[in-house]
Amino acid sequence: MALPYTHHYDLSFSALNLKKFGSSHLQPICCLRCNSSVSSSPFTEKHSLQRYQRDQWVYNNNNQQRPSLSCDDEAASCSVPADSDSIRLNDITLQLPELRKLLQVLKHKRESCGGQVPKNGLGDVFLVGTGPGDPDLLTLKAVKVIQKADLLLYDRLVSNAVLDLVGPDARLLYVGKTAGYHSRTQEEIHELLLSFAEAGATVVRLKGGDPLVFGRGGEEMDFLQQQGIQVKVIPGITAASGISAELGIPLTHRGIANSVRFLTGHSRKGGTDPLFVAENAADPDSTLVVYMGLSTLPSLAQKLIHHGLPPDTPATAVERGTTPQQRM
């Protein structure tokens, strides 16, 4: 097998004898003739910029006003909370006025509200997978956590339908990335998660698909655990599973595909470049699923064929899988 392409995860399946699955209505594509220079995905760099530049704290009702804060809007007039000795000097929230104000609000909430506060004063961080796009594919646990969160940091691939589930008093912060544009660096995201967890907030990190499948969730989890922050992972349906179910293409099938392999299409130098693993991935008895591979698909296809994958191996490409905008 081989690959769908969702641009909710540039995803591709190649499938050996795909027609044996009863899916002959699918149109196999030749990877070598695939034009990867153009994307019709709605999650573009422009979209990322719009998300980042709009109101930092997004509410379910667009007419809803931000809650008033006790400090002035100007950074200079925002005083650091009284327990500032517990705040690290490199705390990213102290560098940005809107984040500084939010940190104060959360600290005040922790100290004055009647809600339950952890004994150690630290909040919890949840890494939540939001699935491939369809909000109905969220787990019940994910919905519960999303609705009770104080702060949610969300990625480019998290749909607005999922964000609509956020509670009215929660704050949202966009930290999405596209090729060539990162609204926040990964190190800044680490610091943000840590800062608000130290303020006692319930912090949710929303990630498309599953947080531990090509989502850098492992890096965030390791960083926070080293700082003494409790991290809970709520799995999501990864794009490969969602799209295979949507299209009726099994990831494994007796007599056709006895294994499945997930591969990132991101091109990086050295041994992590997908082109360097093509030799081991060119197995006609396996399903190969490539995530985020539009830019490297032609080169990867050539490498796979060079290392023994039949040129006529059926494949399909899908974008925005499991959503009403799904296209193949």
What do you see in this structure?
Strands 5-4-8-3-9 form a 5-stranded parallel β-sheet, with helices on both faces. It has a 3-stranded antiparallel β-sheet with strand order 1-2-12, covered by helices on one side. A two-stranded antiparallel ribbon has the order 6-7. The two termini are 16 Å apart. It is built from 9 helices and 12 strands. It folds into 2 domains: 2-43 and 249-318, Methyltransferase, Cobalt-precorrin-4 Transmethylase, Domain 2 (2-Layer Sandwich); 57-234, Tetrapyrrole methylase, N-terminal domain (Cobalt-precorrin-4 Transmethylase, domain 1, 3-Layer(aba) Sandwich), CATH 3.40.1010.10. It is α/β, with parallel strands linked by helices. The chain has helices at residues 45-53, 97-112, 140-148, 160-163, 186-198, 217-226, 239-247, 278-281, 297-306; strands spanning 2-3, 11-14, 125-129, 151-154, 171-174, 177-178, 181-182, 203-207, 231-234, 259-264, 286-291, 315-318. Belongs to the precorrin methyltransferase family. Its EC number is 2.1.1.107. This is uroporphyrinogen-III C-methyltransferase. One of its GO terms (molecular function) is uroporphyrin-III C-methyltransferase activity. Residues 125-328 form the Tetrapyrrole methylase domain.
